[in-house]
Structures are given as C-alpha cells and as structure tokens.
Amino acid sequence: MCGIFAYTGDRRAAGILIDGLRVLEYRGYDSAGIYTAGSPLAVRAVGTVRNVAEKVGGRLIGTSGIAHTRWATHGGPSEKNAHPHTDCSKKIWMVHNGIIENYKELRTRLALHGHVFASETDSEVLVHLIEEHMRALGNDFEQAVRTSLKEVTGTYGLAFMHADNPGVVMTARMGSPIVIGIGKGEYFVASDPTPILHHTKDVVYLNDGEFAVISKEGYSISTLDNALIERIPSTIEWDIDDVKKGGFEHFMLKETIEEPEVILNAIRGRLVVDEGLARLGGLREVADQLADIKRLVIVGCGSAYYAGVVGKYMLEEYAGIPAEVEVGSELRYRKMLFDKETAVLAISQSGETADTLAAIKEAQRKGVMTLGIVNAVGSTIARETDAGVYNHAGPEMGVASTKAFLSQLCVLALLTLFLGRQRGMSAVMGKRIAEEMLLLPGKVEVILNAREKIRAIAHKYGHARDFLYIGRKYNAPIAYEGALKLKEVSYIHAEGYGAGEMKHGPLAMIDEAFPTLAIAPKDSVYEKMISNMEEIRARKGRVIALATEGDMNIKEHADDVIYMPKTLEMLSPVLSVVPLQLFAYYVAVMRGFNVDRPRNLAKSVTVE
Ligand code: AGP
Predict the structure, then answer these.
(1) Together in a domain, 565 and 578
(2) pTM of the predicted model, to two decimals?
(3) 603 is catalytic
(4) 121 to each of 74, 79, 103, 273, 504, how far by Cα in Å?
(5) Ligand 1 mean position, distance from CA 343 (Å)
(6) By residue range, what is the domain housing residue 421?
(7) pLDDT single digits (tens) 463-519
(8) Residue 604 counted as domain residue
(9) Is 511 found in the same domain as 395?
(10) Does 605 sit in the ligand 1 pocket, CB within 6 Å?
(11) Is residue 403 part of a domain?
C-alpha cells in the first residue's frame, strides 16, 4: 500500500521528507515523490526513493512539504502517475493512500469542465475537484477540501498543501490510517508511526471521517462538517524496527493477519448482492467475448497454480465452464491446442513470473484471448493480457505467499460469479454466493483469533521430518498449497495429496514419525475424509484434522483438531488455507529460520 509523510516546522523539509520515505519503503512501492512549499513543482521518480533524492539534490528549500511512496492501483508505475498530484493551477498539491471508487464519473465531469489530467490515477481527481470547488467557494481552500471529500466514495488517507498557504498541511482519513506526530514547534503526518518515530513519540490518530489542519503553531481536528474534536495525544511505545512490521515479528504473520482486510479489498465495489452479480470493471470490455468462451485454460506457478486448481473446481461447478490448469513451466513448452472458444487465464501476484508470462505470450501467438488475475498493477502480465482483475491486496513482502493467495481465491470466486451469471447460474445462487463472500472476513478473523491453538499444535508436530497434507475436491489443492507453505519456510519435506490417492501409494509412507494434516470440513466428501483418517491412524500415523466448528465427531478420528467456521463448499478454501499458513509460519519460527526470506527462494521468479 502507499505511504504518506508530511512535515511543517522550521527545518528544511526536503531532507526530512526523503528520510521519512526511506523508512516507509518497507510498505512496498514502485515510485515516489515530494513537494515542498515554495517549489514550483513536485519531484517524482519511478523506482526507489533514492531516485527522488538524487533528483532533488539541494534544490528544495521549503520548511513544509508532503511526500509519498506509491503502490500502483490505478495506472501503472510511472513518473506521471507518481504522487504528489496537482491541479491545473499547479497550486494545490496532494498525496493519497487508498482507492477513489467513483473516480471515473468525477474525472468525466471534471474533464467536461475543462480540467486537464496529467495521470491515469484515481487519486488525481481529488485535486481537480478541490480546484473546481475553490472557484465556487470564493477561493476558500479548506472549505473546498471539505466539500470535495464529501463527494468521493472509497478509501483515503490524504495530505494536502496550497502554494499560497505555505506551512499549512491539511489531512483527512477514510479507511486508510493517518497519524499526526507532535514535535516541538514542528508537526508530522504519516500513514503509520514509522517515519514519525525518528522525531517524536507523541502522536494523535485520526479516525474515519476526520480532518485536520496543521501548521508549526499547532493542529486542529474536526469532522468534515467542521465540528471540532478534542483528541488526547498518545505515546508510541514501539521502537523503529518493531513498527516497520506493524508490531509483528515477520511480514508473513503480518500479511496473514491482514487477510480479512484483503478479502474486503478484493470484493469492494465488485458485488451486487441483491442481483447475485459480480461487477468486474477490468472485464467489462471483453464481457461479450467471455459469454461465448467454452473452455478456460488457467496458468500459474507455485501457489498461483494451486489457486487456479481451486478456481477450476469453482468454474466447472458453478459457471459450467470446462477448465484445465497448467503450470507455466509446462504449458509454455507444450503443443497448446486452443481454438477461438478458449481463453487463457494467468494468475500471478507479481505479474512478472517468467514461465507464466511465456505461456501467455505463446497463447497470444495462437490468437487466444488472455486474461490476468494480478496483484502488481502495471506489471508485465497485467499489461500483456487482454483484460483482467487486480487483487488490490497491497504489496506482499514475505516470499511465501499468504494474503495474495487468499485474494486470488476471492477473485476466482468473483470470476465464477461473473461468468456463471452469464450462463446458467440463477440469481438466487448468485446472491447466496455473494452473501457468503461478505461473511468471509469475519470468518477468517475467527481463525486468526484462535492462532495460539495452531501455534501449540505446530510446536507439537514441528520436529517431524516429513509431513503429508490431504484433502478432497476444493480442498485437494489446499492440501498441495499447505504442503508448499511448510516446505518453503520450514524446509520440511511435505507432500500434498488428493486423499483418494492414499491407497494408490502414499499410505505406504505412514508410520508414527510421518504425521498427516487432513482437511475435513463438513462438506460433500466429509465421510470419505474420515475414512482416510481412519486408515492412517490404523497404521499408527498421527492426524491433525482441520474441521468445521461444532464437529465433535471428528475428535474420535484425529490426534488434534483445528476448527474453522462453516461456509459454502466452493468458498471453504478461503478459510482452510489460513490455519495452514499459520501452521507453517509457527513451525518455521520454532525451527529458527528466516521466515520472510527462506533460503534459495525469491519473491518473484522472473527467470526460467
Ligand atoms: C508461493 O508461496 C511462492 N512464493 C511461489 O510459489 C509463488 O506463488 C510463485 O512463484 C508464483 O509467483 P507469482 O504469483 O508472482 O507469479
């Protein structure tokens, strides 16, 4: 996600802002920029904060300013899309963290009024909207900001300045955190306490719907309707390193804990619950072509591939579309047999995985429609494919995919809804799926709140040399994914298997030293899973069962049980993968490995 930092005081702002952006780098970003009072323009650059610092040199002399690290959501990484953004007059400057959902209609209206846009971002509409309102409000900048914020829908953490009012920073929050740092004769605004900690530990946090005006003399907080708010400052106890990971020891845990919010970000603005529809803006232009597709070939690598296997089950059962799933490293070399009624869907968090990209290019050479489910906006796969859906999961810093994988499952469920309602899926079924998707964040929260139980089980089994993960139907790919997580971060040899395969070989491995994690929710294959657990325990194999809360029967068939809430069978992978991510994490921490940077692995495999 993006990072915001602003300063007003008596010191030179440029150096303070650049240092603050360097501290915010941990949030993940693809471009950055700063504006300081008295400068005619902002300084922005693609890539690292260092690129901005080199462009700034010693030129910027103002003692107040705003700065930003951008994680692209609308409009790829580029200098023109980097923040701060400005209006036509080049007097209003703004940095934004979040998503303006109604930016298209605002942009259309403002363009009709003669506003010229310099970027492809959603954020830029805000400065032109403020400029528009200033004209109608007698040049009252503060009132124009307040009025404009009432018009936007979506999420924001913002900092604004006006060139005619140097030293004054305005900030507002709706859905994206904002914290104000209180120094001695100087003040700071940031997306999180990290960059402020270098200067002061005294802060106040804004709540959603609140607005603040800050100068070196002080600050005032109010609602958008100008009702004053008294807020007692608090003192941050954390030190700088802790705060970088939001107080968590590792990014992998932080990103797993973020998963309820990640689900919300994946589905936000994309469900029309009453009609049981999914609204996917990135597919709008190809919707008619997609209605004629008779076959989907899904391609991905690693976890993305396993997400694709879950998607296959969803699409076949609920959209009636035959789907096959291939790893990129195989598909790219195979004789791909496609026809005009085939579409190829790439799943990739980074959007840069070489094997997946190669498969997409090969498909395009054969004239096939290509789609993408990608997290990194503006990445190669996002740009190469004909259409697609972004995850909006924010940057994933841990090498082992957690929140991105969960987001991929959610987007695949949205795609299933989108394609299914083009085909035979009823509005009733669509509504049922949509309603259940809205409940998923709370259900994931239940699992996360019980993570101490998972940690205890991880410590009990974490010394095993080998591990078997088994599941059926929707949870067979989750067994593969769970095994991959354990392999990646704890280096244990772990295998994922369709449980029905046990008698065809894997059962021979089982003994008391070879534990099994069985994914056995109360679904259409529950009884089969119980039988598998029985055949394992009959051979002295220990079993950890992943079960539906309230299922007391399963205790007779397992040595340990991890419970999760009930949901629709097609959505159960969204819940069942979370305990497996946590299990792998706690085993790896117990074994003392570098959880976020496992040996031999890279976050994005951009080479063959
Ligand atoms: C997942 O934990 C791994 N880090 C890896 O398997 C990853 O999913 C795979 O490399 C694909 O990456 P992508 O989603 O960026 O294409």
Answers:
(1) yes
(2) 0.75
(3) yes
(4) 5, 12, 9, 28, 54
(5) 22
(6) 239-447
(7) 999 999 999 999 999 999 999 999 999 999 999 999 999 999 999 999 999 999 999
(8) no
(9) no
(10) yes
(11) yes
